[in-house]
Amino acid sequence: MQKIDKRGIVMKYKRIFGIVLDSVGTGAAPDADKFDDVGSDTLGHVGEFFDGKLNIPNLQKLGISNLRDQPIKGVAPAEKPLAYYGKMEEVSAGKDSMDGHWEMMGLPVTHALSLFPNGFPDEIIDKLKEFSGRDIIVNKPYSGTEVIHDYGEEQMKNGELIVYTSGDSVLQIAAHEDVIPLDELYKICEYARSLVNEPPYVIGRIIARPYVGPDKDHFTRTANRRDFTLEPTGETDLDRLQNAGFEVIGIGKINDIFSGHGITKGYHNESNHDGMNHVLHVMNEDFTGFAFTNLVDFDAMYGHRRNPKGFGEALEDFDKQLGEVMANLKDDDLIMMTADHGNDPGFRGTDHTREMVPLLAYSPSFAQTGQSLGVRSPFSDFGATVLDNFGVQNVSGKSFLSELK
């Protein structure tokens, strides 16, 4: 099957839908020892927690267990998988969302970003105080939910900024929405972004973390989170597609991760469910190009909180909507699913885990049962395949388009 667009470009698929299941890793990567993540396995440990009762029939049919060395407990390998399946191995220096997504789009992060295991230096904190006119509390690594439980009431009373970090290259600022309006919080985060774009401090993401609630036992983080990501340090596959005249639709935090570069149209997600609704909405539009989606709840709501029950339930909810998406795919559509890193809810700590990530590619036009795509490295093979389909030259990774029969 080939499509020829008005520019004379020969395409196998008119539309490609890329969906990133944020943090849904599938076993420790070969270099996991460098990150103290040996033994991590997000999908495996979620399956074990559910004791064989994890209900993900659509992912199962596509081949989610076929790509693993050991099947997910209770999720048998498909006899005739609908999708081509494999795993991807990261080469970027870190295990953050930015690293994973940039690498997928042909821009591996080769230099490690700044980490702050002891909190941020005075020169950053003092500038934030001066700019905001507010005091700063905490300033050390902390769980996002625990930090508002422990310091949220103090922040509400005195109007300070809760500044904290994690094992990743992030500076997070939490504030109650009734105390510090969103516009003010975003402006402070934008200023913080301007401070850490070049050595000696290069931070991957500044994250606004607004929350609501009357007291520490009822505080909840809201969907008004916003990521202020380091500007891409070079051209990405999204830029290449857009420059070639194709539409690039970003759903979820894609727009934040790429700082708007290479995005034709963007949709903000309130949740995974909302994100999949956006995918279904976009599927009803007539466009030629790439729709790139990030579903962050797996990571933000369940991985970092080490909640395997919630993680598995989120996979089950996603699987139901995946069935709707599959039913609405046209013969000249391709869907590719993967992840950007792991965040094993059955592992120690609260940070991302260095894992292999699943790779599933499916179109209703496939003429045969899905076959193994093996282990792909770098993640850039994902973007290279998208570019190959639209006749755009890539600079990183190797396309597997020709393997999709």
From TrEMBL:
Amino-acid positions noted as binding Mn(2+) 1 in the UniProt annotation, renumbered to this chain: 22, 340-341
Manner of cofactor binding, per the entry note: Binds 2 manganese ions.
The protein's name: Phosphopentomutase
GO biological process, one term: 5-phosphoribose 1-diphosphate biosynthetic process
InterPro entries assigned: Alkaline_phosphatase_core_sf (IPR017850), DeoB (IPR010045), Metalloenzyme (IPR006124), Phosphopentomutase_DeoB_cap_sf (IPR024052)
Gene Ontology CC: cytosol
Cofactor names: Mn(2+)
Cellular compartment(s): Cytoplasm
Lineage summary: Bacteria, Bacillati, Bacillota, Bacilli, Lactobacillales
GO function terms (MF aspect): magnesium ion binding; manganese ion binding; phosphopentomutase activity
Domain Metalloenzyme, residue spans: 14-393
Catalytic reactions on record: alpha-D-ribose 1-phosphate = D-ribose 5-phosphate; 2-deoxy-alpha-D-ribose 1-phosphate = 2-deoxy-D-ribose 5-phosphate
UniProt-annotated binding residues for Mn(2+) 2: 299, 304, 352
Known role: Isomerase that catalyzes the conversion of deoxy-ribose 1-phosphate (dRib-1-P) and ribose 1-phosphate (Rib-1-P) to deoxy-ribose 5-phosphate (dRib-5-P) and ribose 5-phosphate (Rib-5-P), respectively.
Main location class: cytoplasm
Highest taxon, organism lineage: Bacteria
Similarity remark: Belongs to the phosphopentomutase family.
Metal-binding is among the record's keywords: yes
EC numbers on record: 5.4.2.7
